[in-house]
């Protein structure tokens, strides 16, 4: 991997995935779709962490540890987020983000 | 850049060729093994129920699965009209793929060791993908019973994955490795009888793991996703012909893989008397024999349970996983830590050395103390969990009191 | 150049990015979730290629096996949205598209490609040191597999250097667990077990009925009011 593929390629791949996820999170009406976009963004960040670990500090563990933390935080985020989606659905019979607008003045 | 590539291109080609041969062997061996297992299960259950079972095609009915395979292959391939065609087609592929991947890291006796350093985790990661296949089958069929079966199956698999993985933790603590080959090698003490199942913590882990494995492999009493008296055939309802056979194949191969894993993790894999004495080749063959005997004995246990235990209800299933298995498994992790401390800690805990002597494999005082302590902890845990789970009449909800369930 | 690694990398990139695009564009939300699983598996394979095998397996176990199932369950529990009839994208989706494209082409890629050569130099230095250490440890000959920090080092780091963040993350997970249960809690779950049809019927005869709305969904009302 190192020596064959420049690190910039891996980072560009991660950047592409991040921007796809950003587009999904900004443009979807469905709340679950927004969560999926956020998952894509978190995954691209993890690719970056692992790439920097493997290329620049292969004997250190900072990149690996932070990826584990990110995965744990992402799992927590999805659990709470989807619970909220279900609660919103039960109260408003919709999970479209632009229709849940009770707080709008 | 003179040091790359590490492995030259021709070595890669060799690697790919060897991998293709291995995958072919696993697929062919898995299908043949599955055929044998179906015949074996039907015959064994028939004798338990005072019947004869399939005994007409071939000697003792051994060719019965072959005729059934031909039958399923020649059947028409049907997709329901309103089904999601792609998802409906891909579901059995995902199921079988997840199963075959699990076989990649199982060491077959001492002859074919596997080299992945995190092999144990790998197996459970890829068998976890079965949930995806189930949900795809349930949703893609566009059938209420299929969706119900898929949801039941996923809820069951997700719930039982937690006790399954937690039951593994004691073994990982005892062996200090995530590689299946290492775990098997470390059970070779005491003339090949240093199996982990012979310690209280290992026994508890084995029993909990076996129960959770029954649920993971959808065996009775946990065959709720396919309960044909309740929801037709669960997520298999809309499948026929070859696709159904692929589901069936994946199911039996998963059970076979779980038996292999249990034999490796708890029953010492290919270890047994005489394996090390006979040398590499003969000893390796002997270890293969031991390995298969252990795995088949475990499969027989599964068949025995199918022949005797009725199916659980969905709420009983969930309650059992969360209220019974999980606490016991957690306490078992704790008592494994105590076991490791008592049997292995020398300079880390001087007080143990003062009391029981230096840690060594022939220091029986240390092992005796460890067995007594961990046995007491585990038995207390089981007693406490059973005590807590006993229903208290005052906790009934108003609906249940209205139903007259209080008395 | 090692063409095998190169080919694998490009195939994995195509898989990951292609399924990522499908996740955000496809109309049927269930299909989007299935494409999401494919993206996760592609990322896991990428980790495997970068020799982070433990992370690759955790990725499959947590993301492909658990998170995606949670997403699928949430979609199936919130009905009437799987149909392709409803509009899935926001009316101003092109603003989002422009933002993402500008971020990609205007900020990230120039930065990465400007810094890339210096990072590559550091990387080749690090790799040279790694190979040298491995050769010395192997007694002068270059071993076939160059060891990098693996599961053991990760475990030691989590229990040593990063113990406090580890504890904080475990606390966060516990809080998230409790929070998720509380938010999604349904009054019906106060029952200690699922009632059989006969018992539900008996309850109805006594006038203890679950309040339903016109579509058949259970409306959360306190059990006292229902009685």
Topology:
The complex is a heterotrimer of chains A (about 100), B (about 400) and C (about 230).
Chain A: H1 7-27, H2 31-56, H3 62-92
Helix pairs in contact in A: 1-2, 2-3
Chain B: H1 9-48, H2 64-74, H3 85-103, H4 119-127, H5 130-140, H6 144-175, H7 180-185, H8 189-192, H9 200-216, H10 228-231, H11 241-265, H12 280-308, H13 314-344, H14 350-356, H15 364-389, H16 398-402
Helix pairs in contact in B: 1-11, 1-12, 2-11, 3-4, 3-5, 3-11, 5-6, 6-9, 6-13, 9-13, 11-12, 13-15
Chain C: H1 3-25, H2 29-49, H3 53-77, H4 93-137, H5 151-159, H6 163-183, H7 197-205, H8 223-226
Keywords:
heterotrimer; A: 105 residues; mainly alpha; Helix Hairpins; 3 helices; elongated; B: 407 residues; 2 domains; 16 helices; globular
Describe the fold and architecture.
- The complex is a heterotrimer of chains A (about 100), B (about 400) and C (about 230).
- Chain A is mainly α.
- Chain A is about 75% helix and about 0% strand.
- Chain A is built from 3 helices and no strands.
- Chain B is globular and about 75 Å long.
- Chain B is mostly helical and about 400 residues long.
- In chain B, helix 13 packs antiparallel against helix 15.
- Among the domains of chain C are: about 1-90, Four Helix Bundle (Hemerythrin (Met), subunit A) (Up-down Bundle), CATH 1.20.120; about 190-225, no CATH class.
- Chain C is mainly α and about 230 residues long.
- The N and C termini of chain C lie far apart (about 75 Å).
- Chain C has helices at about 5-25, 30-50, 55-75, 95-135, 150-160, 165-185, 195-205, 225.
- The longest helix of chain C has about 45 residues, at about 95-135.
- Chains in contact: A-B, A-C, B-C.
- The interface between A and C is large, with 76 and 94 residues.
């Amino acid at each position: 991997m190192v020596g064959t593929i420049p690190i910039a390629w891996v980072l560009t791949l991660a950047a592409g995935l991040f921007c796809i996820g950003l587009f999904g999170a900004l443009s979807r009406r469905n709340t679950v779709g927004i969560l999926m976009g956020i998952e894509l963004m978190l995954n691209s960040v993890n690719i970056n962490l692992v790439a920097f670990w493997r290329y620049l500090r292969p004997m250190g563990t900072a990149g690996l540890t932070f990826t584990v933390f990110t995965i744990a935080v992402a799992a927590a985020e999805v659990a709470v987020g989807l619970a909220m989606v279900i609660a919103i659905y039960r109260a408003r019979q919709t999970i479209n983000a632009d229709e849940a607008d009770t707080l709008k003045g | 850049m003179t040091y790359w590539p590490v492995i030259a291109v021709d070595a890669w080609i060799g690697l790919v060729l060897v991998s293709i041969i291995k995958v072919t062997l696993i697929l062919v061996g898995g299908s043949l093994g599955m055929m044998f297992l179906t015949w074996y299960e039907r015959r064994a259950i028939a004798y338990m129920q005072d019947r004869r079972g399939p005994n007409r095609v071939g000697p003792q009915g051994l060719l019965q699965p072959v005729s059934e395979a031909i039958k399923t292959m020649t059947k028409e391939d049907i997709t329901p009209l309103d089904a999601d065609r792609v998802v409906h087609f891909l579901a059995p592929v995902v199921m079988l793929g997840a199963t075959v991947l699990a076989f990649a890291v199982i060491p077959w006796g001492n002859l074919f060791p596997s080299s992945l350093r995190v092999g144990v985790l790998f197996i459970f990661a890829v068998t976890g993908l079965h949930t995806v296949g189930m949900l795809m089958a349930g949703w893609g069929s566009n059938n209420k019973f299929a969706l119900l079966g898929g949801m039941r199956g996923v809820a069951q698999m997700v719930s039982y994955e937690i006790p399954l993985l937690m039951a593994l933790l004691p073994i990982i603590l005892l062996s200090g490795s995530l590689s299946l080959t290492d775990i098997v090698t470390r059970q070779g003490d005491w003339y090949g009888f240093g199996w982990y199942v012979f310690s209280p913590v290992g026994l508890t882990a084995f029993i909990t793991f076996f129960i959770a494995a029954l649920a993971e492999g959808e065996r009775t009493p946990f065959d709720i996703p396919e309960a044909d008296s309740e929801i037709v055939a669960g997520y298999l309802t809309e499948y026929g012909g070859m696709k159904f056979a692929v589901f069936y194949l994946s199911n039996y191969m998963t059970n076979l893989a779980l038996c292999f894993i249990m034999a490796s993790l708890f029953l010492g894999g290919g270890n047994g008397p005489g394996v090390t004495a006979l040398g590499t080749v003969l000893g390796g063959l002997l270890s293969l024999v031991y390995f298969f005997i252990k795995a088949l004995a475990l499969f027989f246990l599964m068949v025995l349970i199918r022949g005797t235990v009725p199916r659980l209800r969905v709420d009983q299933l969930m309650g059992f996983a969360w209220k019974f298995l999980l606490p016991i498994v957690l306490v078992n992790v704790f008592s494994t830590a105590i076991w490791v401390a008592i049997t292995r800690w020398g300079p880390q805990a001087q007080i143990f050395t003062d009391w029981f002597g230096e840690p060594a494999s022939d220091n029986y005082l240390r092992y005796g103390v460890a067995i007594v302590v961990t046995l007491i902890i585990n038995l207390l845990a089981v007693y406490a969990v059973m005590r807590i789970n006993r229903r208290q009449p005052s906790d009934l909800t108003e609906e249940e009191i209205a139903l007259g369930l209080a008395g | 150049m090692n063409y095998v690694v190169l080919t694998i990398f490009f195939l994995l990139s195509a898989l990951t990015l292609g399924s990522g695009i499908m996740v955000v564009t496809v109309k049927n939300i269930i299909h989007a979730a299935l494409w999401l699983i494919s993206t996760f598996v592609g990322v896991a394979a990428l980790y495997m290629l970068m020799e982070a095998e433990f992370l690759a397996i955790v990725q499959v176990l947590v993301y492909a096996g658990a998170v995606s199932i949670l997403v699928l369950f949430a979609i199936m529990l919130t009905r009437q949205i799987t149909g392709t009839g409803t509009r899935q994208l926001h009316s101003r989706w092109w603003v989002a598209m422009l933002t993402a494209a500008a971020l990609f082409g205007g900020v990230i890629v120039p930065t990465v490609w400007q810094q890339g050569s210096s990072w590559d130099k550091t990387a080749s230095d690090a790799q040279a040191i790694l190979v040298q250490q491995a050769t010395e440890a192997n007694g002068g000959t270059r071993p076939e597999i160059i060891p990098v920090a693996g599961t053991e080092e990760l475990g030691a780091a989590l229990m040593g250097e990063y113990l406090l963040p580890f504890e904080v993350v475990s606390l966060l997970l516990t809080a998230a667990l409790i929070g998720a249960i509380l938010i999604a809690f349904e009054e019906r779950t106060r029952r200690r077990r699922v009632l059989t049809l006969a018992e539900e019927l008996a309850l109805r005869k006594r006038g203890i009925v679950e309040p339903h709305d016109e579509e058949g969904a259970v409306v959360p009302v306190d059990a006292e009011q229902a009685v």
